[in-house]
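tool_call: predict_structure(chain=1)
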Amino acid sequence: MSLCIQILALANAITHRDYRSTSRVQVRIFDDRIEFWNPGRLPEGWTVETLKKKHESKPFNPLFAKAFFWIKYIEEVGTGTNKI
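tool_result:
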């Protein structure tokens, strides 16, 4: 996994985190993969299949999304999961 994709995955986990939860974003490193996890949920009516195709961005934290876009950690909204 390239560094750019790792940054995108971490930015995605932070942007879509539910900050009402006391759980933290987690990064787990294994020999064959890196897993990013956050205490969040999919938007109403979405499934994992929704994430596999181009989709509208519905960030849990739009201000984080804007900040990551401005500093170029996010190139285009709604495309991160396809790149990851």
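agent: The two ends are 9 Å apart (CA to CA). Proceeding to next step.
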